[in-house]
Write a structure and sequence with these properties.
- By secondary structure, this protein is an alpha/beta fold.
- 50% of the residues lie in helices and 8% in strands.
- The chain is built from 9 helices and 10 strands.
- The protein has helices at residues 5-10, 106-109, 130-137, 152-161, 164-174, 186-190, 198-210, 214-226, 231-320, and strands spanning 13-15, 21-24, 45-47, 55-56, 67-69, 77-78, 91-93, 116-118, 144-145, 148-149.
- The strands form 2 sheets. It has an 8-stranded mixed sheet with strand order 1-2-3-5-7-8-9-10, covered by helices on one side.
- The longest helix is centred in the last third of the chain and has 90 residues, at 231-320.
Length: 322
């Protein structure tokens, strides 16, 4: 529901326990702040709790306003000039919102009259050094932070924590300043949105069919809608992709070395064979000569042995003749 003049006129009005005149705009699902100039600066307290506010901005000049109740919205950003038109604001309740970074609280630190601030149940309260940072950055008029009174010991400790060069580096670390001049929509335009591949869809559907619990089914259905493959389904592919790389890597690294060493080995083996052949050649020639001489001697010995046999045969024939 929009915050119109009719809604402001019809909204309930009352006196709070602090005797302040307040305007109750609670629970109307208001998305943005607008038309508050129609209040004619007649209220000291405005209750905008339980709405759908995302960004806090667009306040008209309201010098009489002292208390601003903004609990249980979806506020994640405060405009830099958010409170410039509210010079007498003393209490801001932002319990149950979505402020995440300390740098988002910078407009609150510029409130010179701020006395009470609540950021309970906001993610920013879990940031390291959140409370010392707020005590150090906010004006000394801040007395109660998150419904806890600020003690003098805390003020001294926060002053020592952020003192000197070391303190400046710590401030830059936990609350880096925003970069001015960059359009946040530029990276969104550069990102090319592509849908999931058919293989991813089939894999997720197969996992849904094999799921045993409802939690697995719901998780896989969300993955199917988003098109992002879950880690448990992506792990085997990564292992398979890494395994061949691990197997091929050593072989690919050793292959060039093997190819380089083969020619060298062949050359060495050829040279050694030539040397061995040169060394064996004289021996083989001498052996061949000795074999030829032996053969000649055997040929000469065989006829000499045959002649006495012939002589003996003739003598035997003469002896036997009558």
């Amino acid at each position: 529901m929009r915050l119109t003049l009719e809604l402001i006129q019809q909204a309930p009005q009352s006196l709070n326990p602090a005797s302040q005149r307040q305007l109750l705009l609670r629970g109307f699902k208001i998305p943005t702040i607008e038309n508050l100039g129609g209040t004619m600066d007649a209220y000291e307290c405005i209750d905008l709790s339980d709405n759908d506010l995302i960004k806090l901005a667009n306040f008209p000049p309201l010098k009489r306003l002292r208390v601003l109740l903004l609990a249980n919205n979806r506020i994640s950003r405060l405009a830099e000039d958010c409170f410039d038109c509210l010079p007498n604001l003393t209490s801001v309740i932002l319990t149950g919102n979505k402020l995440e970074k300390l740098v988002d609280l910078e407009p609150l630190t510029r409130l010179k009259t701020l006395e009470r601030l609540s950021l309970l149940e906001c993610p920013v309260t879990k940031v390291k050094h959140y409370r010392p940072y707020m005590i150090h950055k906010c004006s000394k008029t801040l007395r109660i932070l998150d419904f806890n009174r600020i003690k003098d010991k805390e003020r001294k400790a926060s002053g020592l924590l952020f003192a000197g060069e070391r303190g400046k580096r710590l401030l830059e670390e936990i609350a880096p300043p925003r970069v001015v001049g960059k359009d946040p929509q530029e990276p969104q335009e550069k990102v090319v949105k592509t849908g999931p591949s058919p293989e991813v869809i089939e894999r997720i559907k197969r996992a849904i069919a094999e799921a045993e619990t409802i939690e697995e089914v719901t998780r896989l259905e969300r993955a199917l809608k988003s098109g992002v493959l879950p880690d448990d389904l992506r792990a085997p592919d990564a292992a398979e992709a890494e395994a061949p790389a691990a197997e091929d890597g050593p072989e690919a690294a050793e292959a060039p070395e093997a190819e380089e060493t083969k020619p060298m080995e062949v050359v060495k083996e050829g040279k050694e064979a030539e040397k061995a052949a040169d060394e064996k050649a004289p021996e083989e020639k001498s052996k061949a000569r000795e074999g030829a001489m032996d053969v000649d001697e055997e040929k000469e010995e065989k006829p000499a042995a045959a002649e006495p046999m012939a002589v003996d045969a003739d003598s035997e024939e003469k002896k036997t003749a009558p």
